[in-house]
């Protein structure tokens, strides 16, 4: 027969086990430190231990004693040293040899800065998943990588050496410049290694890959040749996002990485028509592009109005749909300052010519009469929209992608144009008034020039979102440049087919963000006009009619006759190869461009193993990757380039599963900034609270769902307080009580996995069942990479273990029901705590290692480290009936506590009764079976069960999330019908599990049913109650004399326990307890409570008229109401 295991203590009802443990540790170890306390840091100081316990522990104890307090950061550092001494990471890899492979790709960061919280978050996710793979029987290569090329490195060198232009690099020498870049590439690699290790992440730095390695670069050449031979590489002259600070084009996806709100000029400019006396008004936020204007663009389908300005005597033309906005911006009042003269169709404007604003182009040698005849004309295109501007767009084709397209289509551009602006964004020095000026600085001068020419209609400002260079953090411009492209637009469907073969967590990133990006992706500009990077392996003739793509070092050596040891520019730029047409032609030389560093990182699956020059046979085993993870910002970065390259190479995705995390922001919601100092240094937070607390905080945050996280130091502190400490105290409690058990019985504690299964105690079977449910749930969710569903299960289990199982069974574990019962409870706790610790090892590697090192002493065949262990698998049957019964009991107790709190009646105060109300006999039977626990937890004298639900009403609401997708347009009618269900209909739905509503089968998952109790209808001031979805309770607060004296006895017991604590007595110390009430009535009434007091205090209690004074007697006197009491503890020599 199953029984509820009731503890017989009624004091210290805190409701939270962890808090009670911290504030009131068990008497046997209270306020003491053990010299031999289990600690990697050996931080315990020497304080006396009860002699009998100390001798027993030294001789036979299974577990090392655990200190009451632990400095978790210092303990973690000691564990790190322990791991280093054991070489645990490499040992783990050796142990995994021969297992099935699990492939993980680690995206390469730059080592020019220190890791931040975003790196720690992504690194923790990677660490959790790869630890899980290892601990489920896989061989996992965890290899770190470094991004060593590109703008981030060059930008640092440019700042250090005051390099402003490409010519400055040429003067210095590309070789000197590149070697300076090489010197700083790994500047912070040591700090990275140290910080990443301190976070508990296991990753191989010794066998890392670097994008600057010659073997890596050679694979990049091979990949490019494959793509070149497939016809997906081409050279084009296009308008591209361009970084003036870095003097190079960037790809379209890079331009989307860093948007900021900026204030720009917003000017209306009048262009004078030469065909009739009208002035066409265009609006622009880039006045610096006006000197490069070649055309005006209208929408042929729009209606345009001619507005006569009375004071200025001119006729302005704007689109009718933009007239109101134009008048508002320029503060012109219609029919006062301006009036409509006439209207015309946009098509009537097409073909008309206008005067150029400036003569900059006309003075350039490359701008001839033929080009002039094609320029300064009005053309039509639907790019002109009704949502901004004046309805007339000024076109500067070298500085706008759409401008270029329209001008080419209309024959305005047929060849190269003179360039008025250099590669650094400065107007050419010979240009009058603006020569040598930076384009944004020239805006003001150009506005002055327009005003002088009476062409400035209005000058204002506009705040808008604008793209910035992701590396230099300076505004990008759009500029026409010659670039090399990899085709994407023609292969979107192929890429999307590969995307469909991948699983993304969370899924919306794939379905919306990534798919939408691919659907609109442009051809990828992979060339950069820079120096430190992998040279593009194209050798060309001067006119580009002859192009040879090199795919290996061997091929270059064979064609050139030169030995090649390094592939950087200063080693290969001077290498020439013969022109295939014959010796009479000049030899081919390499083009000056290098690869985009995103091309390098996107090629890492192949380049890190030097494929296909090495590892050709083993490569299929590690491609595609089983798993990758990075931040949401990589959707248009690394994730994209991985997918483009793998699709072109193999028609397959580069990875199968991916976790995308959100961005980590400062507590104020802004981007973390060293300049603003709006975040705490990660190392400082780790040193204060421990890496496990930081890991758990990050991994339990919205960021794991690809949502932004505002990093709060208080959140890390909360994890330490609410997770790490309760876990530690549960472990410490187990160690203490096992030590007590071994001293008292003289038997060694040997845990049994079957103890809980074979127990007759409901709570033992329950804790075994929820442990198995936890194990199953963790494997299910981890297998689907849903980390956001894993940690909540683990933390919910910890709550169940500490605040329900341990608290309810605490006295049982202390031997109150005999040592056999103590063993069963301790063995049950050991099994569940051991399983929980193993499952937590992925998330909190330090704390789990510390606890495991002691727990493993009770078992055989355990590994040297918890991280070598395989994770537990489900064993034994889950008793669904018992888990149901305990869940009902918990609901009753929680509701009862809520009512007590509302009435401000402490749990220490006994109350008359509790009535549990529910129409379902199964619910009432669950309470009946666990009635003793309910009585004990709520401190009630009587429990009554009732099916009378007259005071309770059930409320039902539709679960719109569950029903919406299924019902579609019928949702509104079905929802109304559900809300209108009668009490009988709701009861029937609950009983049968489903119901027909307007022809639709509605189940319990489709609705939310809550119970509401009408306390007012009870018409009794001492009756109060509460309810939830599952059950309703009524509490009787009627007071009588018996209850008052029981409360008095509870306070007496509490005072004795405080006196014990002050005296630092253990549960094993021999004592006699005396209680002296004042007055005959108090003596008589308290004498009746002797049995309760002895049961609670587990010692002989004497209610006396006078406490003894001889011997080692310690007393405490207090008042309770109008009564005075003295409690005394007599300590006996042992």
From TrEMBL:
Annotated keywords: Aminoacyl-tRNA synthetase, ATP-binding, Ligase, Nucleotide-binding, Protein biosynthesis
Keyword ATP-binding: yes
GO terms for biological process, alphabetical: isoleucyl-tRNA aminoacylation
Domain of life: Eukaryota
Domain Methionyl/Valyl/Leucyl/Isoleucyl-tRNA synthetase anticodon-binding: 764-911
InterPro entries named among the record's database cross-references: aa-tRNA-synth_I_CS, aa-tRNA-synth_Ia, Anticodon_Ile_ABEc, Ile-tRNA-ligase, Ile-tRNA-ligase_type2, M/V/L/I-tRNA-synth_anticd-bd, Rossmann-like_a/b/a_fold, tRNAsynth_Ia_anticodon-bd
Enzyme Commission number, as recorded: 6.1.1.5
GO MF entry, a single one: isoleucine-tRNA ligase activity
Pfam families: Anticodon_1, DUF5915, tRNA-synt_1
Catalytic activity, reaction form: tRNA(Ile) + L-isoleucine + ATP = L-isoleucyl-tRNA(Ile) + AMP + diphosphate
Domain (Aminoacyl-tRNA synthetase class Ia): residue spans on this chain: 79-707
NCBIfam families, sorted: ileS
Family, as annotated: Belongs to the class-I aminoacyl-tRNA synthetase family.
Cited PANTHER family: ISOLEUCINE--TRNA LIGASE, CYTOPLASMIC, SOLEUCYL-TRNA SYNTHETASE
Protein name in the entry: isoleucine--tRNA ligase
Organism annotation: Babesia ovata
